[in-house]
Known about the structure:
By secondary structure, the chain is an alpha+beta fold. It contains 2 helices and 9 strands; from the N terminus they run βββββαββββα. Helices cover 21% and strands 37% of the residues.
Amino acid sequence: MRVEFKGLNFNLLQGWTDITEDLPSGAPPSLARAEGVGTVQFSIAKYRSGEDPNVSIANLQVFLADFCDRNGIRWDKMIHRDGKIMSVSVTSTLDDEFIEVAYFSNGKDIVLLTYICSDVDSSEFENDMIGVNEIINSMEF
């Protein structure tokens, strides 16, 4: 199903719900599955006016590396995709915790997406990842 979520448009598979109001005040927009084992969170920066920011893959790579450094996220390989929507992403696994961090941009707007899972051995982890990939691959600003 195609949804509009906090200024983003993407495909959202059945079973995913907005859990933002269930989190502490000030938490970023968040989605999860009732039977899932992780949470997707979004931080969205929309271009409003002024000089065109002309965001590039190189900018997103710097943002991602800085985010990971500030949050103690260790990663081996940064993946990037160029196109109408550019993206850079990393994944990290420590013990049973998995995190995917990705920045997206259309050249003006920027989205930070994180998926955090505390149980990669759960059979629901794969189902969560199918939903996360659907969101990522269908995202539009």
